[in-house]
Design a protein that fits this description.
71 residues; mainly alpha; 5 helices; 0% strand; elongated
Length: 71
C-alpha cells in the first residue's frame, strides 16, 4: 500500500518539471506544488489533487482495510 501512490508522484514530478514555475522561475518542486499559480498547468493541479487524495486514503482506516485505490 505504501507504493500505491508512487505512479502519481512520478507523474506529478514530471509535470512540474515541465512547467514554467520550475523552468523559468527556477523554483523548487515543493514551492511550485504548494501554491496555486497560473504558471502551473491545470493538468498538474489535477495530478496534485489526485495525489493528495491518494495519500489521504493511506491514512484513512476504512481505506486501509479495503486497500487504497491505486494508480
Amino acid at each position: 500500500m505504501s507504493k500505491s501512490c508512487k505512479g502519481l508522484a512520478m507523474e506529478l514530478v514530471k509535470c512540474l518539471s515541465e512547467s514554467d514555475c520550475v523552468k523559468v522561475e527556477n523554483r523548487s518542486f515543493r514551492e511550485c506544488a504548494g501554491e496555486k499559480s497560473p504558471t502551473i498547468s491545470s493538468e498538474c493541479v489535477g495530478l496534485r489533487e489526485t495525489y493528495f487524495n491518494c495519500k489521504r486514503g493511506q491514512v484513512d482506516m476504512r481505506a486501509r482495510i479495503r486497500g487504497n485505490k491505486g494508480y
